[in-house]
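Re: your question about L-2-hydroxyglutarate dehydrogenase, mitochondrial

S., sorry for the slow reply, the queue was backed up all week. Below is exactly what I fed in.
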Amino acid sequence: MLVSNLRKSVIKPINIGTTRRLYCSSSSTTTKQRRSDGNTFDVAIVGGGIVGVATARELLMRNPNLSLVVLEQESEIGMQQSSHNSGVIHSGIYYKPGARARLCTQGCRLMYEYLERNKLPYERCGKLIVATTEEEIAKLEMIFKRGVDNGVEGLEMLDSEGIKRIEPHVSGLRAIYSPNTGITDFGLVAKQLGKDVQSLGGTIKLNFKADEFDYNQQSNTITIKSGSGAITGDVVAKFLITCTGLYSDRVAVKSYGAEQPKIVPFRDIYEWLMESGLPKLALKHWRRGVDEFVRDVSPAAFLKTLTPYMPSLKVDQIEYAGSGVRAQALGSDGEIVEDFVFDQPPNKPILHVRNSPSPSATASLAIAKEIANLSESKIKQL
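Result:
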């Protein structure tokens, strides 16, 4: 079954804009200084990816007098998953009912509104999900029903002639057409959100690697220490939110979170093997992993998987491109954790985003609202 994001050129990706650098110092101050005592803040958000800065923006819009800091270990906002992904604005077709489906469909709408309002580059290019065999049609109908149940707007089921009307280069028996799937540069979006945080009075500290977390029961505060980053020192917060993507399990455990779920497999190979759930996952899906590897290194093998859908495609039309990264939670039983996961350690002013895989970039503005709702009672007490 082919999933194809439709672009102006079938083979060549369109240029949707050049990423602009977010200029701010390693310990940037803001244009609207909020009440804070040096390095003491009402809220600290660890992680300056798209979810972290979207959450900071949402909290400041709801609470204009809040003193808030975003702590990011890199030298710029959004340097990891936020700028290393497919760039797809997902409409929410595939996901099982739950937070992931709900926040994706909400987030898709919010993202388009945000892109339009801030004049950021995007294309609502649409997507075809194509079945080329009778066996795949049943799966296609299941996906279509799930998309409708999730509230995805504008879905159409097309026959072979309908496919050709949308994309003449693609062949298939039937296809789902999703007109509201699109593409954008989420790294650029993250940087704009960072600028919003600063204009709303928030502080962004770059090159701050959060190494240690100490909870003071008497003052009910968290001290966040950076000892190994370019910037060293302490930040004290009355409420802590972690949105650390690839590092979410490590940071959560350091800051009083549970051991599970773990994030795999985006670490060095030794640590992959140490994760209790990974061998079970590998045994279950080893053949698919081998096939993926072969397609990655062999243009001919990659072409072979595409020609049933695009018979006119030639090997010289295939180009190598950079791959993305994805933080995916895995249970100790070897099963992938499909839904978004948030947890709050008991009796501590902390909220962890433990699992926010794709479509978290699409859903980031909706995830931010979810986190703000979960944090509301604690923040009102500050």
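The chain has one domain: 2-260+338-380. The two ends are 52 Å apart (CA to CA).

Happy to talk it through on Thursday.
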